[in-house]
Design a protein that fits this description.
- It is a single chain.
- The chain has 40 residues and is mainly alpha-helical.
- Helices cover 48% and strands 0% of the residues.
- The chain is elongated.
- The chain starts with 15 loop residues before the first helix and ends in a 6-residue tail after the last helix.
Length: 40
């Protein structure tokens, strides 16, 4: 399994496993941002 953290990663066809990991990663960062836990 491989991941991508860029716009290029959006152009890659994702397996079910990659889709789950991508969703979890995105959710993790959204939760931290909304909780005010990220420093600018």
């Amino acid at each position: 399994m491989a991941g991508a953290h860029s716009a290029e990663g959006e152009r890659v066809q994702k397996s079910l496993e990659n889709t789950i990991v991508r969703f979890a990663d995105h959710s993790f960062w959204q939760i931290l941002e909304r909780a005010g836990a990220l420093q600018e």
